[in-house]
Write a structure and sequence with these properties.
heterodimer; A: 2 helices; B: about 800 residues
């Protein structure tokens, strides 16, 4: 009886570790995937502006700079909020009224 | 590094290349050439006659003529406005008139108009008098009739009052006598004067008359039923008609004088009723005649004014242009031969062909023998700064220019401001519901661009309209940041999937004491919706937003220092690169870049290290063991290295540069002291006041050293204060979120609890007003201001000198914008 409980415990621990590893991996995967999405969106936006608003090399460079700046700013904003929530030190404690 | 040099230059990054040009016009084509250059609008003339007063200049008489003409035009505009006519623009393009012809015409019109006005005034005056006379005849007739008919009643009354009222005893007895004799009253010595006086003065008039005649008078008054136009003040005043009964010649003289003083007009009213009726008829007919004459006069004047009005704008523009052309011609100098005018001006290098073509056209059109000469000059003086902006970028350029115009060819912060300014605004404003409201407003302004652009707006609307593209970007970024903060009028939504937190067990007993637990992967986009309303919401959000502010701040400041590197590289200033850029980068990043790194590592590892403690003890006891605050291996050694680098960086940016500058100056000007004699011989035949003469400056070592010290101290102390200043991103974002929550929970939800429709509507209305005025207007302005300050001070003081001057070309379209 005791040994069965112990082995169950070990089995559950292993699943727990596996799950938490999956969660950790899922966190990082989510981060990388979304970063990639931002990169792709930035590249597509620059190509679209190059095609639609082609006005000479100096103006094109200006447009490229604007798009890169906007993409970097938006990515930073998202990444900061995502990273802060990956391994939180405090958790939501509900209010008494809810 | 050469790759950077080989990149094409970016559009708005540096000022257009400018050149100083010298123009020589033959006198006969000068006027036309300047006019064509004004239409082109790409040349800024330098004032070569700076020391001369306005009356010493060549074309002063023409300028005076133009001023006189614009005075006449303003007079016409006033008259049209007073007459209440709308100034219209004539649809047909009439042939251009030259200046002399216009002058003559304007003088004629003015003369005509003044004459018409004078005639009109005289007619109006006689009309007024006749009108007053008519009213007096009516009312005075009433007085006299009343006195006669109530004879019997008054007699008994008089008898009663005779002994009670001693003051009036004389008057009473005289009247008694007048009544008893039915003949004309002048036989008994009682005369009367009737007239009309302003209602406001009536009381004092009566009192004065009473005192002057010692009570020996009877004053009857009644208000006039029509108002009369007072010619001096041009308004309608109320008047009172009076009749004074008196006796004696002395009294008459006194009364007449008093009437004159009070501005009361007296009219002879015949006593006889029949005569009165005759005169009334006459007066009425004359009145109607005068009315028709007046109307005809007014119509004639209105016609004249309309014909003037249709051409008024055209004439005003013409006169403005001519005055501007003569002002510009005044800036030029006469050549030695007195046959040419010489001028200097700044223009963009790209405009060279256009200007030359305009000059050729002018020469051809004025059929002059000699062409205008246009050639480039070298200059020591710094050129004006010119950015070619479209109506999207011009608003941002104005924002940057409000702080200081960029020095010629230094990096323009507007390039990055286009994105970072709305972005930092959005960090402080983040709520996608409010962002949508702002977006609707911005789209409305942009949709009505053409209509709003042509009309004259109030100063607030004008600013709002001018910044419509700024508001558009602000709203788009606000929507994005609102989605990241997960706030829609402070309500979170589960747009991107379910929350990452759930109860620890099925009963959810612990949720109010220990809290939920994170079981799944992180909420993919933005702040998890479970945080809203929880007790630990504020500690979490505060920590998040403070760290976010630091990260954004360090990034923007690094961008600023990088721009200073590009500036130094562009101007070929390797001294600045080695002894300013490098130590600045090292100092900022060893301290605050390291802090940013710690923040990111703490987030990634979930460690419980106290970053305040780490940073402070890095300075206080750098060699101490970190213990539980250790975030990564080798942290202690790294901290010591970073601290040492930062400490070295301070004297690195302070000391070497002044000494090296001194050495360079000595090398450059070593051989110059013998060359000065040679230069002064040649300077006789150069034009005075040209920008070409080189200056040999003194090198004041103490000044340069103090300047460098101030710069370094400002940077070192500024590193700390500027980083802390970025915490306003956190502060305003918190304020916005809290205000939004309060309005939602304490107004809308509170009103919604009641089932009553009226209460709900009232609650909704209060919520809408509070959101619109406090959140949308006040918070927008507040966040705008703080984002602006962050750009102007924290970002720009890393690289921007901003001591240039703006390129203001001589252009007719710019004239049309400033109204006189």
């Amino acid at each position: 009886m005791n040994s069965m409980i112990k082995s169950e415990q070990i089995y559950l621990d292993r699943i727990d570790r596996q799950l938490s590893f999956n969660v950790r991996e899922a966190n990082e995967m989510g981060f990388l995937v979304t970063t990639l999405i931002f990169l792709v969106v930035g590249v597509i936006a620059s190509l679209v502006t190059r095609i639609c608003f082609n006005q000479g090399p100096s103006t094109n460079l200006l447009h490229l700079t604007l798009i890169i700046t906007a993409t970097v700013c938006c990515w930073m904003m998202w990444a900061i909020v995502y990273l802060a929530q990956m391994k939180p030190l405090i958790v939501p404690i509900l209010n008494d009224t809810e | 590094m050469e790759y950077i040099d080989n990149l094409p230059s970016m559009d708005l990054m540096r000022s257009e290349k400018m050149m100083l040009a010298q123009l020589i016009f033959p006198v006969e084509s000068a006027h036309r050439a300047v006019s064509y250059l004004g239409q082109l609008g790409l040349l800024q003339f330098r004032d070569l006659n700076d020391e001369k007063s306005p009356y010493q200049r060549t074309f002063v008489s023409q300028v005076k003529r133009c001023a006189e003409m614009s005075r006449k035009l303003r007079f016409f505009k006033d008259q049209i406005h007073k007459a209440g006519l709308m100034p219209s623009s004539s649809p047909a393009l009439q042939p251009d008139i030259d200046l002399e012809g216009l002058e003559v015409r304007l003088a004629d019109h003015e003369h005509e108009l003044i004459e018409m006005n004078a005639n009109g005034e005289k007619l109006q005056q006689s009309y007024n008098e006749l009108l007053e006379f008519k009213m007096i005849l009516q009312k005075a007739g009433d007085f006299l009739v009343t006195n006669g008919s109530h004879k019997g009643v008054q007699e008994t009354e008089l008898d009663e009052h005779k002994y009670t009222n001693n003051d009036h005893s004389d008057t009473v007895s005289l009247l008694e006598q007048a009544e008893m004799q039915p003949g004309p009253s002048y036989q008994s010595g009682v005369k009367f004067i009737s007239g009309i006086v302003c209602k406001s003065k009536c009381l004092s008039f009566e009192r004065m008359l009473f005192r002057a005649t010692r009570g020996n008078m009877l004053f009857n008054q009644s208000p006039a039923k029509d108002q009369i136009l007072d010619p001096s003040s041009n308004e309608m005043v109320e008047k009172t008609i009076f009749t004074v009964f008196f006796s004696g010649e002395q009294a008459r003289k006194k009364i007449l004088k008093i009437c004159e003083t009070f501005g009361a007009n007296c009219y002879p009213v015949p006593e006889d009723t029949i005569k009165r009726m005759q005169i009334t008829k006459e007066v009425a007919s004359r009145l109607s005649e005068l009315e028709t004459t007046l109307q005809a006069g007014l119509r004639h004047r209105d016609m004249a004014l309309t014909s003037i009005g249709s051409q008024l704008t055209k004439w005003m523009n013409m006169v403005k242009r001519e005055k501007a052309i003569y002002d510009t011609l005044n800036m030029l100098n006469f050549d030695v031969t007195k046959k040419c005018l010489v001028g200097e001006g700044w223009c963009p290098i790209s405009a060279k062909t256009m200007i030359q073509e305009a000059l050729q056209r002018a020469t051809f059109d004025s059929s002059s023998q000699v062409g205008a000469i246009f050639h480039v000059m070298d200059s020591i003086e710094s050129p004006p700064t010119y950015f070619r902006t479209n109506h999207f970028t011009s608003a941002y350029q104005e924002i940057v220019d409000a702080y200081g115009i960029a020095k010629y060819q230094e990096a323009n912060p507007a390039v990055y401001t286009i994105v970072t300014f709305p972005f930092l605004f959005a960090v402080m404003f983040g709520d996608w519901g409010h962002g949508i409201c702002l977006l609707l407003g911005a789209l409305l302004l942009i949709a009505r661009e053409k209509r709003l652009g042509s009309q004259k707006l109030g100063s607030f609307m004008e600013m709002l309209f001018g910044g419509r593209y700024v508001v558009l970007l602000m709203s788009l970024f606000s929507i994005y940041c609102g989605l990241v903060y997960n706030e829609f009028f402070s309500v979170p939504f589960h747009i991107f999937g379910s929350s990452a937190y759930k109860c620890r067990d099925a009963t959810c007993n612990d949720s109010r004491s220990v809290g939920l637990i994170k079981y799944g992967s992180t909420y993919p986009f933005g702040v998890d919706p479970s945080w809203r309303g929880s007790r630990s919401e504020l500690p979490f959000l505060n920590s998040l937003k403070m760290k976010m502010s630091i990260l954004f701040g360090v990034t923007q400041m690094n961008l600023g220092i990088a721009l200073s590197y590009f500036n130094a590289r562009f101007f070929g200033n390797s001294l600045d690169i080695k002894y300013q850029f490098v130590p600045q980068m090292i100092f900022l990043n060893c301290l605050f870049g390291y802090l940013s790194l710690l923040i990111i590592i703490k987030w990634c590892t979930g460690s419980q290290a106290d970053l305040y403690h780490v940073m402070i003890y890095m300075f206080l006891s750098p060699f101490e063991d970190l213990g539980e605050n250790k975030l990564f291996w080798g942290q202690g050694t790294l901290q010591v290295i970073l601290l040492l680098s930062a400490v070295i960086a301070v004297p690195w940016m302070l000391f070497p540069k002044p000494f090296i500058l001194k050495r360079l100056h000595n090398e450059r000007f070593q051989g110059q002291s013998y060359g000065i004699l040679g230069v002064s011989e040649m300077s006789n035949d150069e034009e005075p006041d040209s920008a070409r003469r080189p200056h040999i400056e003194d090198f004041n070592f103490s000044e340069v050293f103090v300047h460098q010290m101030i710069h370094s101290i400002e940077f070192v102390l500024g590193a700390v204060s500027n980083t802390a200043s970025y915490l306003r991103l956190w502060a305003l974002s918190l304020a916005h979120s809290e205000l939004s929550t309060v309005f939602y929970e304490k107004v809308l939800l509170l009103a919604w609890v009641y089932d009553n429709l009226a209460v709900r509507l009232v609650g909704l209305a209060i919520f809408a007003f509070a959101t619109a005025f406090i959140l949308l207007m006040m918070e927008t302005l507040s966040a705008f201001l703080h984002a602006l300050r962050l750009h102007w001070v924290e970002f720009q003081n890393k690289f921007y000198s901003g001591d240039g001057y703006k390129f203001r070309p001589f252009s007719f379209s710019a004239l049309a914008d400033d109204d006189d």
